[in-house]
Design a protein that fits this description.
The protein is an alpha/beta fold and 427 residues long. It has two domains: 3-39 and 219-410, Glucose-6-phosphate isomerase like protein, domain 1 (Rossmann fold), CATH 3.40.50; 53-215, Rossmann fold (3-Layer(aba) Sandwich), CATH 3.40.50. Helix content is 48%, strand content 13%. It is built from 14 helices and ten strands. The protein has helices at residues 20-45, 58-73, 87-93, 113-116, 140-164, 176-183, 204-212, 217-233, 238-253, 268-282, 304-309, 349-366, 381-401, 410-424; strands at 3-8, 76-80, 104-108, 128-133, 166-170, 187-190, 257-262, 290-293, 314-321, 370-376. The strands form two sheets. Strands 1-10-9-7-8 form a five-stranded mixed beta sheet, with helices on both faces. It has a five-stranded parallel beta sheet with strand order 3-2-4-5-6, with helices on both faces. Strand 4, helix 5 (140-164) and strand 5 (166-170) form a beta-alpha-beta unit. Helix 1 (20-45) packs across helix 9 (238-253), helix 3 packs parallel to helix 7 (204-212) and helix 9 packs across helix 13.
């Protein structure tokens, strides 16, 4: 497996006292067998595409050809998407140094105009491709941004420029983005209606930007497939064990905060993707824990004090990359062999990160905090695919244990309707 899962302080060490968390965990883990059977049935029937995507390769051939053509033709590519239409792609693209990519890759996951404006004017506009992504084709933010894109391109080169420099990804239904694409002769790619936005990272929504960035999507899906196959067949698989523990701690100890903290800057987008995945999936009917994203070692200097001395209401997951980096050995002679720097002598930067991760884990464990370590030996496509599938499955299993639907988002849809009402001036 591409990662290893370890726990600290989640169960009692006492041999005499009843361990209610372990009892609840054992019962929850047994319940995952029925959930896994249901997922296996849905997979076999093709009714849950996120479970069949890891095995697919044919769609990647067409997307790879499209990505190669775009790399050749354009100097800059902007992904116009928000939430699940953008975050998964950002996670995958993080495997490459986005700032050095040719073409450069940008994500409009905000409505701040000062972020959008530089791409809508100037000499670079004619060399920029815009990927307009909205599953439903009715997301207000994406429709607003798409209008700005079309207006800028139309002023520059008319309908031909709009058609050449945009691509729309939405459901193959009658929707506003689709109608806009048809009017302007914009190519449309079909977003599978059965793949929710926050679960779409392995679909064309994540795959196309990732392929443009040079990411091996076949390897990503292979890593996801390994985790999926084990989770559907083994009750001891990491996603099922993690879900059962989440449920037990929530049910018995009122653990209401779920902290994800990788010790790798490249995994920071993963924490933002996970935050949406967990929050939108589990927060229903008065149930659910709140996801908190963090980044090590940065947040040792901002949140660790609260974590250690504050209430014990958090479940911590630290992702630790055990690989060494390519940094040079530190030469303390540059500071006149200052004795205070002796601990840095002949170490790489990655040695410092490893030491700080180990120290944080040890300190959290020593304070009795509920802790999980996910250790990886390399941050590559297969590992990232494994982590993405782990968190999707862990979320799905936990939701079912809490008896909420992991795939809908009724409160969010209400907010979208109200946004449109306010802009129309409706009371």
């Amino acid at each position: 497996m591409a990662y290893r899962q370890k726990f600290e302080n989640c169960f009692s060490d006492s041999e005499t006292a009843t361990d209610w968390v372990y009892t609840a965990f054992s019962k929850a883990l047994a319940r995952t067998e029925g959930i896994a059977s249901s997922l296996q049935m849905l997979k076999g029937q093709g009714r849950l595409p996120i479970l069949t995507l890891p095995e697919e390769t044919e769609d990647l051939k067409e997307l790879q050809e499209l990505a190669a053509a775009y790399r050749e033709e354009f100097g800059s590519i902007v992904v116009v998407g928000i939430g699940g239409s953008s975050l998964g792609a950002q996670v995958l693209a993080s495997l490459r140094d986005v700032g050095d990519l040719k073409p450069s890759l940008h994500f409009w996951d905000t409505l701040d105009y000062h972020v959008m404006a530089p791409h809508l004017a100037g000499d670079n506009l004619e060399k920029t491709l815009f990927l307009l992504v909205s599953k439903s084709g009715s997301t207000p933010e994406i429709l607003a941004q798409s209008l700005l894109v079309i207006e800028a391109l139309d002023k520059m080169g008319g309908k031909a420029a709009v058609s050449r420099q945009t691509l729309a990804i939405c459901e193959p239904t009658d929707n506003a983005l689709g109608r806009m694409a048809d009017k302007w002769n914009i190519r449309r790619l079909a977003h599978d209606p059965n793949v929710g936005g926050r679960y779409s990272c392995l679909s064309l929504v994540g795959a196309l930007p990732a392929l443009i960035a040079g990411v091996d999507m076949a390897a990503v899906r292979e890593g996801a497939k390994d985790v999926l196959n084990e989770a559907l067949s083994s009750p001891e698989s990491a996603p099922r064990v993690g879900a059962a523990l989440h449920y037990a701690l929530y049910d018995i100890e009122n653990v209401g905060l779920n902290v994800l903290m990788p010790y790798a800057k490249q995994l920071e987008p993963l924490t933002h993707w996970f935050r949406q995945l967990w929050a939108e999936s589990i927060g229903k009917e008065g149930r659910g824990s709140t996801p908190l994203n963090a980044l090590g070692p940065i947040d040792q200097h901002s949140q660790l004090q609260l974590w250690l001395d504050g209430p014990n209401d958090k479940f911590f997951t630290l992702i630790i990359n055990k690989a060494d980096d390519d940094s040079p050995l530190m030469d303390v002679a540059l500071a006149d062999d200052d004795p205070e720097l002796d601990y840095l002598k002949n170490h790489k930067i990655s040695d410092v990160v490893h030491a700080e991760a180990a120290a944080t884990a040890s300190t959290l464990a020593g304070r009795g905090k509920y802790l999980r370590l996910l250790e990886i030996d390399a941050l590559d496509e297969k590992t990232l695919g494994a982590l993405l599938m782990h968190f999707m499955l862990e979320t799905i299993f936990t939701c079912h244990l809490m008896e909420v639907n992991p795939f809908d988002q009724p409160a969010v849809e209400e907010g979208k309707k109200l946004t449109k009402m306010y802009l129309r001036g409706d009371e």
